[in-house]
Amino acid sequence: MPTELSTLLATVGTSVALVKDALPLIETIRSGWRAKNDAVKQQLTAKVEQLGRAIHDTGALAHVIENYLQNLENIKELLFLCKRMEHLVDQNIKALRNRMDPHYESTWRTLDLLMENLDRERSTSRKAFLDRIPWYDDQDRHQMDLLLGQFSQAFERASAHRETRAVDNLLHRIRALASTLQDAEALLKHTIYEKGLKTLQSLQT
Hints:
By secondary structure, this protein is mainly alpha-helical.
């Protein structure tokens, strides 16, 4: 099972401290064939092994952040589709309400296509999220599960309103979909920047 992000962050954050601890030890190594450096060498070996693990986890952390970025792109694609639907309904609300309007059928067909695209994209995105759930810490996992559940419920209700051509109710659900996705986007960005990238950035100081 992949290491949780919170564990990686804790390990990576120790890299600088390990280097600082190792430098004074190096300075105590004495030259000459009579020099007794065994204890120092043992301490250095232990520090180097710890540093090696921290460096390995730094690479793993970078991979985790990459996965988060991929999930963020998925969320943005879903949000883009929701915003397109919201704009379409807003701009054509009168035609979508009136079966006698000459643009009624064509506008609903466009909306149907957008909903079908959203359905395909959400299925792909949900699978990606579920596959990567072990990458989240407990807080991220819980929040993302709630958001995915809210999104699924809102989508099912939106689909029902689309079938009955209840455009006002549909618009309400589309806005709920967009709001949920914006919350998911904010969650992913916070983890990427506040938890992940700032930890990597701290290694430069």
